[in-house]
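tool=predict chain=A
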Amino acid sequence: MELRCLIVDDSRHFLAAARGLLEREGMVVAAVASNGDDAVRRATELGPDVTLVDIDLGGESGFDVVRRLTRETDLAPATVILVSTHAEEDYAELISASPVAGFLPKTRLSAPAIRDLLGLPA
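tool=predict ok
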């Protein structure tokens, strides 16, 4: 099954690197967004299968963006994955309280890791 992905991150470099990596691994990066407003707009337009949201979006919290995505769009919380360069332990309580599929360190980002968090076969 081909997964369509929305990536939300304020770093153009990360967006380009993540897009390249995931597309090489068979995922379709349907869109990218750099802030909450763009993320909500893109998610509404595209209805991605999975949405990756950076925890630290510069002036915005990824946790706030996740709340907006699950309130203002038809995205199921179980299709949202938080990503960060920080260790999971740094945000463990917030991640566990957030309605997401899980957390991936940016250094471990891959299509198989995403499929695993979503409970899908590799």
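The chain has a mean pLDDT of 93. The radius of gyration is 13 Å.
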